[in-house]
Amino acid sequence: MSRKDQKIYCNCCGKMICLLSEKDRTSFLTVEKEWGYFSDKKDGRIHRMDICESCYEKMVEKFVIPPEEKQVTEFV
Ligand SMILES: [Zn+2]
Question: Phi/psi class of residue 61: alpha, beta or left (left: φ > 0; alpha: ψ in -120 to 50)?
């Protein structure tokens, strides 16, 4: 559980990312995955994790294929 005391913690490095109330103004990755019928072992479970931006950068560096990147056009 990476959220407690109204704070969000990075699942990867354990550092506090931000207060829960600041989450819309903070850059971090939240992954929520419902493992369904086609999963081998996690059938019917939901996993959620919060990853801070620096851990995200480190994680992506290890990818063989980098994430697809697009420019957000609404802000241009
Ligand atoms: Zn982290």
Answer: alpha
Cα 35 from Cα 75, distance rounded (Å): 34
What is the average per-residue pLDDT within 37-53? 85
Rounded to the nearest angstrom, the distance between the alpha carbon of 29 and the centre of ligand 1 is: 10
Instruction: Using the mean position of ligand 1's atoms as its centre, give its distance from the Cα of residue 41 in Å.
Output: 27
Q: Where are the domains of the chain?
A: 3-63
53 compared with 5, residue with greater pLDDT: 53
Separation of CA 5 and ligand 1 centre (Å): 18
In the reported structure, the alpha carbon of residue 65 is separated from the centroid of ligand 1 by a whole-number distance in angstroms of 21
Q: Which pLDDT score, from 0 to 100, does residue 43 have? A: 75
Q: So what's the pLDDT on residue 57?
A: 97
